[in-house]
Amino acid sequence: MKKILVTGGLGFIGSHTVVELQEKGFEVVIIDDLSNTTLSVLDNIADITGTKPEFHQIDLRIKSDVNNFFKNNKVDGIIHFAAFKAVGESVQNPLDYYENNIGSLVYILQEMRDRNIDNFIFSSSCTVYGQADELPITENAPVKKAESTYGNTKQIGEEIIQETCKAHGINAIALRYFNPIGAHESIKIGELPIGVPQNLIPYVTQTAAGIRKELSVFGDDYNTTDGTAVRDYIHVVDLAKAHIAALQRLLEKINKEKFEYFNVGTGTGSSVLEVIKAFEKAAKKSLNYKIVGRREGDITAAYADTTIANKELNWQTEKSLEEALASAWKWQQQQNK
Ligand code: WQD
Q1: Residue 66: helix, strand or coil by DSSP?
Q2: Is residue 77 part of a domain?
Q3: CATH of the domain at 35
Q4: Any coiled-coil ranges, and where (predicted)?
Q5: Model pLDDT for residues 60-110, shown as the tens digit of each residue
Q6: Which residue in 7, 112, 114, 253 is deepest, having the highest Cβ count within 10 Å?
Q7: What is the residue range of 22's domain?
Q8: Residue of 150, 203, 233, 261 marked catalytic
Q9: Ligand 1 pocket test target in 128, 131, 144, 179 with most atoms within 8 Å of CB
């Protein structure tokens, strides 16, 4: 049985990926520093799959702790989610973001180099494209100077990985996520925003649950069909499955380059107002919202051209926006019990 290390494995996307890995027969070991999640997610994963993954609470900024882990744990591959990810916060605290997101990546890659660990999947983001010149966005779209420190850590991360693969023969795939949303059908795992949600969907569900008074729609003067910004919202389980597909590509050694990257989205763009309408239909309740000014740093539109990911990863999204929103709402109701 192949053993896979999942860093950030108790986080939103990490936990859903751990479930899919276990269900595909992989043995999973999780490293998480619990800075943006809770230990109860480990039991929730076990409730879904029947197997509690091995867990180590480690701060990946501490090189000696990373080294100790690898001294005592042999793994066949690594899926690296662990990172700070709040766009606004990253601009206020750039050094914390570079130390955590880049530092931990370097320490893990050093261990891979020294111990001949070969397969690496990196959690990247469509923010590397900024506002793309053409839509839908293909992998050939130019990477642009990131608008945020968070986005820059993803760009720099990809460059570090590419150079490491070239110099040390590691095989790696970066998955450039669009907007992950929703929750596992069991409603035992989902998004756990701490504090006031920065992302749209948790803010929508918390407004519908009465936790927030009303949703502020950040701008309706964009050059889009209804003036609100457009994004590609992908069900988190579809996204998790893309990680399994990418890992299998590396394990089967059918990757074509040492370093590859794929756009992981649905291929469909939805505006904020379209999301609100779809949510009201899915949740069978109306949502309080108001139009306010644009949010600093937001782009007009981003949605993926998934042709290459579909073909090379032999992977397709299976769930609709409505299904994702319905699962997000069920998850929110579960949190309020
Ligand atoms: C989506 C749309 C907002 C909140 C970011 C990161 C990306 C990834 C996902 C980490 C935008 C609008 C939002 C609200 C709103 N993060 N909005 N009212 O900014 O596309 O992407 O989160 O991996 O890397 O860049 O996602 O959910 O914040 O915003 O109107 O209260 O919803 O303006 O158009 P975003 P988001």
Answers
A1: helix
A2: yes
A3: 3.40.50.720
A4: none
A5: 999 999 999 999 999 999 999 999 999 889 999 999 999 999 999 999 999
A6: 7
A7: 3-180+233-265
A8: 150
A9: 179
Task: Answer whether residue 103 is part of any domain.
Answer: yes
261 included as an active-site residue:
no
Q: Kindly give the distance from the C-alpha atom of residue 128 to the centroid of ligand 1, in angstroms, as a whole number.
A: 14
Q: What are the pLDDT digits (tens) for 179-217?
A: 999 999 999 999 988 899 999 999 999 999 999 999 999
Place of tokens 């949510």: 279
154 within some domain: yes
Number of domains in the chain: 1
Three-class secondary structure of residue 314 per DSSP: coil
Within 6 A (CB) of ligand 1 lie: 85, 87, 125, 127, 179, 198-200, 203, 215-218, 229, 231, 272, 295, 298
The two three-digit tokens of residue 165, written as one number = 């693969």
CB contact at 8 A, 204 and 286: no
Enter the ipTM. Answer: 0.97
Vertex 314: Cα angle to 169 and 48 (nearest 5): 95
Gap between the Cα atoms of 301 and 315, Å rounded:
24
